[in-house]
Amino acid sequence: MSKTRFLTFCLLLLVLASFLFEFWPLAVIGLAALGFVGRGFLAPLLGLLLDLAYGAPVGLVTYLFFPYTLLGLLTLGIRYSFGRYLLERASRDTL
After folding, report:
1. 16, 46 in Cβ contact below 8 A?
2. How confident is the model at residue 54 (pLDDT cuts 50, 70, 90)?
3. Which of 32, 33, 47, 55 is the most buried (most CB within 10 A)?
4. What is the dihedral of CA 44, 45, 50, 55, to 10 degrees?
5. Is 78 exposed, middle or buried (0-12, 13-18, 19+ CB in 10 A)?
6. Rounded to an integer, what distance in angstroms lies between the CA atom of residue 39 and that of residue 32?
7. Distance separating alpha carbons of residues 39 and 57, to the nearest angstrom
8. Neighbour-count burial for 11-20, b at 16+ CB within 10 Å, e otherwise
9. Model's pTM, two decimal places?
10. Any residues with CB less than 8 A from the CB of 40 and at least 6 apart, and which?
11. What is the pLDDT, as a whole number, of residue 74?
12. Domain that holds residue 48
């Protein structure tokens, strides 16, 4: 088993444990980390599942209708935009 698969599996377990123990900061940490790991496309999908499971948010995040999905998309977008920047920078420096 490769390291990224093992890390992805551990992060999925962290997010699922946060749902079982009803401790939402673990879900936020797990989704953010999952967005930056090799298989980042799982973060928005798992975020959507968490949003459906937890229901409508209350408090300050009421206007963010799907906060976990938005977090997954945000981390995925950051990962790909910075990845492109770092690849461009590395290719210029090596030439």
Report:
1. no
2. confident
3. 47
4. 90
5. middle
6. 12
7. 27
8. beebbbebbe
9. 0.78
10. 34, 75, 76, 79, 80
11. 93
12. 3-94
Structure tokens belonging to residue 62:
């009421």
What residue has token string 């948010």? 57
Per-residue confidence (pLDDT) for residue 87, from 0 to 100: 67
The DSSP code for 41 is T
Taking a C-beta distance cutoff of 8 angstroms, is the pair 72, 44 a contact? Answer: yes
Query: Is 29 in contact with 14 (CB distance < 8 Å)?
Result: yes
Which amino acid type is present at position 55? G
Question: Residue 68: pLDDT above 80?
Answer: yes
- CA-closest candidate to residue 43, choices 76, 14, 17: 76
The number of distinct structural domains making up the chain is 1
